[in-house]
Amino acid sequence: MKVNEPYLTLADYQKASRRTMPAVLDDKERLVLALGLNGEAGELGELLKKHYGHGIPLDTARLASELGDVLWYLAAIATAHEIDLNAVARGNIWKLRQRYPDGFTRGGGNA
Fold this sequence. Notes:
The protein is mainly α. The protein is 66% helix and 0% strand. The protein starts with 9 loop residues before the first helix and ends in a 12-residue tail after the last helix.
């Protein structure tokens, strides 16, 4: 697998991102991953808040970079707990199909 290929699965990403994690994670380091995800999600939210709330032009390159940081932490947390990111994605799609069998509509009553 080459990371510059046009098609990269979540499994490929999870495997490639593993090399930038500590070899062994204790409970404190697992918590730090969760806090890191929270921090990166906050940075993403702040970027969007400034755009939609304050009218600052959206820097889509920075948006993509922040999304990548969120993805890294998500993959790291999954890896640290031996959870397959592909399985997470499949499970989420299944849950969404159950919740929104006809697709999402505003006011559809699906919560």
